Amino acid sequence: MPLEQTKIQANLAVSRVELARHLGRRLRYLRAQLAITQEELASRAGIDRARLSKMETGKCLPCLATLARLACCLGVGLADLLHAVPDATRDPACDTDVSETSQLT
User: Fold this and answer.
1) pTM score, two decimals?
2) Is residue 102 one of the residues assigned to a domain?
């Protein structure tokens, strides 16, 4: 594999990890604003709580359909899930190594 292609793939992998972490922080922040549990949000969105937990900790990146359901349940648009999360809500647990991020769920 050419060196340039390897660099591009490495950058895409880092971008996926960063995106998964950002979306996780955003999901957790929005859920906290509604004062609902993971169990409640997962039930509303039609996913299991363990899967939502992985999303919130940045360990998996949900597919677009799942993101759309979560956004609807949180009362926001898809674009709102990409907005920055205030620093005060940042969770150090999201700064761990992400080995499952390449999976779409």
Assistant:
1) 0.69
2) no
